[in-house]
Design goal:
Blueprint (H helix, E strand, L loop, with lengths): L7 E3 L6 H14 L1 E5 L4 H15 L12 H8 L3 E4 L8 H6 L2 H11 L6 E11 L8 E2 L6 H7 L7 E7 L11 E2 L12 E2 L5 E2 L7 E5 L4 E2 L10 E10 L8 H4 L2 H4 L4 H6 L24 H4 L3
Parallel strand pairs: 1-2
Antiparallel strand pairs: 2-10, 3-4, 4-12, 5-8, 6-10, 6-12, 7-9, 7-11
Length: 294
């Protein structure tokens, strides 16, 4: 079986309702869409330079420590991964405030939660000769919730793989199985399925569902790195993969927008307009503006 290439839709400087509707339609049909020029080039260049500088402190395969053999295979022996990107460049906070990604996240996640927060913000640099990553679904981080309701479980996470430089199939562009987010049978891991690559230029983003099968591609070069980063959100009543709330202090985020504070775990969770109780509460008077329901 072969699939058509992923749909590509250009972003605009301000949120365009028609373009957003088209992006969401492609996302619903295929499980993902390439949004061209979602991030300003100046922001991407600043993030790219910061990631390159930080990468000098990480050896390929470092992120595999303590993960066991399956984890090592999943992360990659010649792949560099690291988080805490806001500590490396203020461009990261600009990316969190991106209006196009916000519109898509609002449309997919807010029907199931009062607010959402960052799941991961990672540099993902695939080195020469790295093999293809096993295909997987990001939503399987919360498999005990997803599996009993599959395939009709609500969307709990949305991700963007963002090109910091040109990303081609030869360099290891993310591979995706279009439509697999609607398969009747939940397959947590697969390897030998036909896929299509999400090739991108700097500033483009492959925005995809947590329910779709995907994985990093093989880097077929001998001397080039695939330079990209991953940014994902998860509904506010689930635990994120990364502990952003203890990665940044209240003082460090005081000048950031309430949205960024919430995305990084420095605001409490209000379920409204949905049913449920407040979560992640902190009632100390000195910091109540940061943590109590607002």
């Amino acid at each position: 079986m072969t699939y058509q290439p992923l749909e590509r839709i250009a972003a605009s400087e301000t949120v365009d309702e028609a373009a957003t509707a088209a992006m969401l339609a492609a996302y619903d049909r295929d499980g993902g869409v390439v949004v061209e020029k979602m991030f300003p080039l100046a922001t991407i260049e600043a993030m790219r330079d910061a990631v390159r500088a930080a990468a000098e402190g990480f050896a390929p395969g470092d992120a595999t420590q303590g993960l066991g053999e399956d984890g090592k295979d999943f992360v990659g022996a010649n792949t560099v991964r690291f988080s805490s990107l806001g500590r490396m460049s203020p461009a990261y906070f600009d990316m969190l405030d991106n209006p196009t990604f916000e519109a898509m996240a609002d449309a997919t996640l807010l029907p199931n939660c009062g607010s959402y927060w960052v799941n991961t913000g990672q540099a993902m640099l695939i080195g020469p000769g790295e093999k293809a990553q096993v295909l997987h679904r990001d939503a399987n981080n919360w498999l005990n919730y997803v599996e009993p309701l599959w395939p009709n479980c609500p969307e709990v996470t949305i991700s963007a793989m963002i090109a910091l430089t040109e990303v081609t199939e030869e360099l290891g562009a993310t591979r995706v199985v279009p439509g697999s987010h609607k398969w009747e049978e939940l397959k947590q891991y697969e390897t030998d399925l036909p896929t299509v690559p999400a090739e991108m230029s700097p500033g483009d983003a492959f925005v995809y569902s947590g329910k779709v099968l995907h994985g990093g591609g093989a880097n077929q070069t001998t001397d080039q790195w695939r330079e990209a980063m991953h940014l994902s959100f998860v509904v506010g009543w689930l635990t994120p993969e990364e502990a952003n709330a203890i990665d940044y202090t209240t003082d460090e985020l005081r000048e950031q927008s309430p949205r960024i504070q919430r995305l990084l775990g420095h605001r409490s969770y209000d379920p409204r307009p949905h049913a449920g109780g407040g979560l992640w509460l902190q009632h100390a008077k000195a910091i109540e503006d940061q943590f109590i329901l607002d």
